[in-house]
């Protein structure tokens, strides 16, 4: 880089940069997820809006997931050095090559935890849960070889609709039970996506970092 002097119009070079050390690469908040067809997404948003109306009570506050955030997380990686994105992508391709496409059906509502004050409101899977669980387990095991912490909780595939900030006196169990027959439909899972997320005050902003197609016969 050169600096132009306004007084002499002479060009000056900056100090010797031989000892310059570039700043470390930034950390990214990463996770691996599967996405749904637009039809599934719109149907799930409709269920979310119906549920929201039944939970609009004083003292109850829920952060509802927007359209771009409706997915099922296979593996949460957390804060990760950006330099590892390429090897994570290669690992995803390796795992994806061992799994073929499969169908899922998004149906039913629930909360985590299912008793007491809930933290998460979700839609579940009526079909495709075992295939999704196998994909998540393979991804988790393979990434553990790179030093990522393995999961010690049972994988429960779910589509998060909202995160409860203040439960108030809302009866979440009854609200979910009234809409438990809601069916968002069927979709084919043919890939998994590596996302980074930036926690903006208006809501998370997601960026696609890599997509791995499920290619096994």
The count of β-strands is 11
Q: What top-tier CATH class fits best?
A: Alpha Beta
In the CATH hierarchy, the architecture is Alpha-Beta Complex
Flag low-confidence runs. 1-23
Helical coverage, percent range: 10-25%
Structure description:
With 217 residues, the protein is α+β, with helices and mostly antiparallel strands. The chain has 4 helices and 11 strands, in the order βββαββαββαβαβββ. The chain has a 5-stranded antiparallel beta sheet with strand order 4-8-7-6-9, sandwiched between helices. A 4-stranded antiparallel beta sheet has the order 5-3-10-11. Strands 1-2 form a two-stranded antiparallel ribbon. The N terminus is likely disordered.
List the helices and strands and how they pair.
Layout: E1 3-4, E2 11-12, E3 27-34, H1 38-54, E4 61-64, E5 72-81, H2 85-96, E6 102-112, E7 120-127, H3 129-144, E8 159-166, H4 172-178, E9 183-189, E10 191-200, E11 203-213
Antiparallel strand pairs: 1-2, 3-5, 3-10, 4-8, 6-7, 6-9, 7-8, 10-11
Helix pairs in contact: 2-3
Summary, kept brief:
The chain has helices spanning 38-54, 85-96, 129-144, 172-178; strands at 3-4, 11-12, 27-34, 61-64, 72-81, 102-112, 120-127, 159-166, 183-189, 191-200, 203-213. It is α+β, with helices and mostly antiparallel strands.
List the defining traits of the structure above.
Cyclic Phosphodiesterase, Chain: A; 4 helices; 5-stranded antiparallel beta sheet; alpha+beta; 24% helix; 11 strands; 217 residues; disordered N terminus
């Amino acid at each position: 880089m050169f600096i132009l002097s306004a007084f002499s119009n002479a060009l000056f070079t900056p100090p010797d940069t031989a000892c310059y050390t570039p700043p470390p690469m930034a950390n990214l908040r990463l996770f691996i997820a599967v996405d749904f067809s637009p039809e599934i997404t719109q149907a799930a948003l409709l269920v979310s809006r119906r549920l929201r109306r039944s939970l609009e009570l004083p003292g109850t506050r829920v952060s509802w997931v927007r359209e771009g955030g409706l997915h099922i997380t296979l593996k949460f990686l957390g804060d990760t050095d950006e330099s590892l994105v390429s090897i994570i992508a290669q690992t995803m391709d390796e795992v994806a090559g061992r799994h073929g496409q499969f169908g899922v059906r998004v149906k039913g509502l629930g909360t985590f935890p299912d008793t007491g004050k809930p933290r998460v409101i979700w839609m579940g899977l009526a079909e495709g849960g075992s295939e999704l669980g196998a994909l998540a387990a393979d991804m988790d095991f393979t990434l553990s070889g790179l030093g990522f912490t393995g999961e010690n909780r049972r994988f429960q595939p779910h589509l998060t609709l909202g995160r409860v900030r203040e439960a108030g006196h809302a009866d979440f169990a009854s609200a979910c039970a009234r809409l438990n027959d809601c069916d968002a439909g069927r979709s084919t899972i043919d890939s998994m996506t590596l996302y980074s997320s930036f926690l903006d005050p208006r809501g998370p902003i997601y960026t696609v970092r890599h997509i791995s197609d499920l290619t096994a016969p």
